[in-house]
Each structure stands twice: as structure tokens, then as C-alpha cells.
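User: Design a sequence. Structure:
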């Protein structure tokens, strides 16, 4: 198994480089390019070679990488899926709002389901995609931008004005979550304040900016905590730790018995219902094209799918020692206890007994522990990529993740050794 501290450092570097979904994909691309992967144009005719290494980007926010089998078109696939997005605050168009004293706030919208109060009183900045005017109206230019210094903060109301704040504090997404960014001398200065800042960063004119997908992020870097650095804390562990694990496993394995696939979708936090989400046909179309490029037909594709297996990698809830009553009494994973198999009797996960047994066997072969998560029966759980993907592709597979605290907080926490355990299991799966 890889050195735990080295693995933790690599994960923290990845997280720091990936404050939003677009930067996560850009970071993955950089690693794939360095490893000799070839980027594919979905509009071109593909010429895939057995043993070749390729990747495809969708919407600048989803990425699919694979190494082609040498065993023929019906050999099957080994897939690890994850997602690039995390709950956050996204900036609305015409965002500037000026108040008394010339204080400028930005109008933002909540994306996904964040723990809102964790966003207060933190140094925040802006990153994301900017779409620019191009020669072809149907294909505008796209740039990725990230401001490395803190630009914003969402200040709390002082306790003196809300004495009951520690007894429960209902928040308005429209009123309470607006970050401040500047003080201006007059109302005219606020006009296009954000766009002027973005244009300066990109070296373009404000008029060239047609639209943007910009989000806020916490500028505090990932770090380890604990007497022996037992814990790793950062934003976006859900689900970028799984993206990093899948990428590492793909780059550090070599089997071509089946086509190895890393599928990183976007928009899982909002239901996966986009063209780059797990509910779209993007993965099914990719797998079908791979089979076709190897000379296979529809029958070969269907046979290939029947031989395949997918690990749906999305993080799990770790047992919180302050809230034992919230967890199932016999199936609550702990931090440091290894990868977590996620089970739900109402089929919110794709796991069944057979696929759980497969993953347990993989962990056994890798020499790492594994554990189970089952919801407390009085609390409804969420769903993830696995069961959504099975509506598109008839795949065997398991839902799993790393056990983390404070899921959907601006800062989540996990055990450092769990990531090394997960990578070992992923590499074993790819190299079977």
C-alpha cells in the first residue's frame, strides 16, 4: 500500500488546485496529458488502438478517461465513476448590489445542498468558467479563471443583534448568504465590477464576456490535523477525493484484460439531470463507441456490458461520536476503517449482495479493510451515481465511498489512511 502521508499530500495538492468543477477537470486533464493520454474530439471519427490511452471532456466540467482492452470488442469494462461538483454558492448575472456606505454585495444562488452556516466569516474567492465572444456564434471561446487571493466574505450578524443565534438560526438563501466584495465611492463604480475584475484577469474586454459559471470557494488550503496527522480536512472531499483516487488508480495500473474507465460526471449534487450528468446517455454512448472502434457490433456491446463491473465512488457518512443516535446501531462506518460499501433496502444505491461480495473480495485481495453504511431506519438517505447510471446501462456494480465527517460543509474531514486504502482497492480492481 502506498505511503499514507505521501498519498495525503498528493490528495491535498489536487484539492487545492480544484476549487470548482471546471478546475477539477482541468487538473485531471493535466495529469492525463502528462501520462500520454490523447484527447478525443467527440465530433471527429475516432481511430482507437488496442492498448491506447484516451480521454473525452464534456462541458469543461466532466471527463471520461480510458485505456483500451487488447482482448477484443466484447472484452468488457471496469469502470470507476465519481463526480466533479460540490455544493457551493454560484454568482448570478448582474450580481452587484450596493448598500449604505458604498458596500458592494454579490447576488448569489445556492448550488446543491450545502451546510450554509459553515460559509460565514471565511476568506472566499471566485473561480469557474467564462464564456467569451468568438468568431463562430455557435462555438464561443471558453476560459477558466481562478482568483488565488481572498476577494469576499459573508459576515455573520453579531450575537448582540440575535441573542438566540446559538439556539437555532434559520437562514434565508437570498438574504443571509450574500458576500461582500468591495467599498465603492459612488453607484457608478459598482457597474460591471465583477466583470471588470474577471476581464482584467483574462486580459480581455468586458464586452467580450458573454456569460459565466462562477462559484465561490474557501481559500483556506487543505491540511492534516491530529496528533499524528490522522485526519485530513478540506473543502470538496465529497467527491474530489474519489476523483483523485480513480485518476491515481487509472494512471498507476496497466491491465488491458478489459477496458479501464474513469468516468467523472458533473451535477450530481443537483440530480445528475444534465447532458454531463449520470442520468444522460454520455457514458453509454462512450462505451458503445469504444466497442464500435474495435470492430464490434451492437451484439458485442451488449455482451461487453454483461461482462462489466462498475464502482460508483461517492463518499459516505462517518460515525460522529457526538451524535451516535443518528446512525444505524450496527452498520456505521468509522473514520480510518477503510472503504465503505453503501446499502439501501429501497434501492437508493446500486449495491446488492452479489456486488457487495465482489467489492469485499477486491478489498481482501488488496489487503485493506472495508465496512458498511446503512441508513438509520427512521432517516431517509440520499442517492448517488450508481442507481442513476443503471437507468442508462445494465451494469453490475457497487456504491462505495470514504467515510467523512460534515458532508456538504464548506470543510469536510476524513482519515488520512482511508484514502490510501481506497487507492489500493481501486488499483486492485483495475489490475484484476
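Assistant: Done.
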Amino acid at each position: 500500500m502506498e505511503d499514507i502521508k505521501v498519498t495525503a499530500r498528493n490528495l491535498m495538492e489536487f484539492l487545492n488546485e480544484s476549487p470548482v468543477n471546471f478546475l477539477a477537470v482541468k487538473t485531471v486533464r493535466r495529469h492525463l496529458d502528462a501520462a500520454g493520454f490523447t484527447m478525443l474530439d467527440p465530433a471527429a471519427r475516432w481511430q482507437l488502438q488496442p492498448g491506447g490511452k484516451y480521454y473525452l471532456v464534456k462541458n469543461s466540467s466532466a471527463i471520461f478517461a480510458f485505456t483500451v482492452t487488447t482482448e477484443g470488442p466484447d472484452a468488457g469494462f471496469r469502470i470507476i465513476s465519481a463526480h466533479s461538483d460540490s455544493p457551493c454558492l454560484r454568482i448570478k448575472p448582474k450580481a452587484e448590489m450596493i448598500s449604505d456606505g458604498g458596500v458592494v454585495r454579490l447576488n448569489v444562488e445556492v448550488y446543491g445542498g450545502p451546510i450554509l452556516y459553515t460559509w460565514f466569516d471565511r476568506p472566499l474567492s471566485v473561480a469557474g468558467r467564462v464564456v467569451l465572444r468568438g468568431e463562430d456564434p455557435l462555438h464561443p471561446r471558453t476560459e477558466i479563471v481562478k482568483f488565488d487571493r481572498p476577494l469576499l466574505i459573508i459576515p455573520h450578524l453579531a450575537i448582540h443583534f440575535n441573542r438566540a443565534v446559538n439556539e437555532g438560526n434559520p437562514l434565508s438563501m437570498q438574504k443571509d448568504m450574500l458576500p461582500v466584495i468591495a467599498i465603492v465611492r459612488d453607484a457608478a463604480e459598482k457597474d460591471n465590477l465583477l466583470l471588470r475584475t474577471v476581464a482584467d484577469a483574462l486580459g480581455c474586454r468586458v464586452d467580450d464576456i458573454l456569460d459565466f459559471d462562477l462559484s465561490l470557494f474557501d481559500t483556506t488550503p487543505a491540511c492534516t490535523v491530529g496528533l499524528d496527522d490522522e485526519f485530513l480536512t478540506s473543502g470538496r472531499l465529497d467527491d474530489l477525493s474519489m476523483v483523485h483516487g480513480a485518476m491515481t488508480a487509472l494512471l498507476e495500473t496497466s491491465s488491458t484484460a478489459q477496458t479501464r474507465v474513469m468516468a467523472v460526471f458533473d451535477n450530481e449534487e443537483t440530480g445528475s439531470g444534465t447532458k454531463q450528468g449520470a442520468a444522460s446517455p454520455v457514458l453509454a454512448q462512450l462505451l458503445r463507441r469504444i466497442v464500435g472502434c474495435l470492430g464490434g457490433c451492437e451484439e458485442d456491446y451488449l455482451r461487453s456490458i454483461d461482462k462489466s463491473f462498475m464502482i460508483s465512488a461517492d463518499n459516505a457518512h462517518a460515525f460522529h461520536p457526538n451524535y451516535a443516535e443518528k446512525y444505524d446501531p450496527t452498520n456505521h462506518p468509522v473514520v480510518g476503517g477503510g472503504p465503505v460499501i453503501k446499502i439501501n433496502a429501497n434501492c437508493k444505491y446500486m449495491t446488492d449482495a452479489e456486488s457487495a461480495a465482489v467489492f469485499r473480495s477486491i478489498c481482501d485481495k488488496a489487503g485493506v479493510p472495508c465496512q458498511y453504511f446503512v441508513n438509520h431506519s427512521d432517516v431517509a438517505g440520499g442517492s448517488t451515481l450508481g442507481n442513476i447510471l443503471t437507468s442508462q446501462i445494465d451494469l453490475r456494480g457497487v456504491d462505495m465511498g470514504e467515510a467523512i465527517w460534515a458532508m456538504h460543509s464548506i470543510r469536510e474531514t476524513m482519515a488520512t489512511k482511508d484514502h490510501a486504502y481506497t487507492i489500493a482497492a481501486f488499483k486492485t480492481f483495475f489490475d484484476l
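Residues 4-86+235-431 form a domain with the Aminopeptidase fold (CATH 3.40.630.10). The CA atoms of residues 131 and 142 lie 5 Å apart.
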